[in-house]
Amino acid sequence: MSWLGKFWGQEARAYRNFQLVFTILTLNFAIPTLSYIFAPEVAVGQFIQLNEMLGGSPYTVDEAASHLWRYLGAANVATLAFMCALLQVNVNRFYAVLVPLTFMKALAATLWLAGFVAQPEYPAFLAAAILDYVTSGAFVFFATRAHREISSGAEHLPALRFA
Fold it and tell me: How confident is the model at residue 163, as a pLDDT?
């Protein structure tokens, strides 16, 4: 476990923090991809519970029955996971991926917000918008800082770098 100590204690703190946050983000997209494909009722159920918890009206749309939107949603979330993983593997080489990654998530946030404006009886739309905007900001904040830190020619590169 000496690699963990080296990783945690490295001087490239922005890179370390980027790796930690992007590990969480990658898993945050990769795991739901599986539920979207194989257990859509779980994802829809969580949305319905959140909406109820926030005092929203009953959400009666049978989203889990839609193969069209389920497959598109799974492809979207899988792509987010893939782009996060590419950045984790080599933030310098794949830095350009940050633009479509952020665009995709920020557009989703904007659509959630538009959904809430059109149907304020579903506050889960607003919660999803806020979460997606925060996620988009995290993409830019952590990837940009890590990229800047390890491409600056600093003497101390991260103890654990992939590729």
Answer: 44
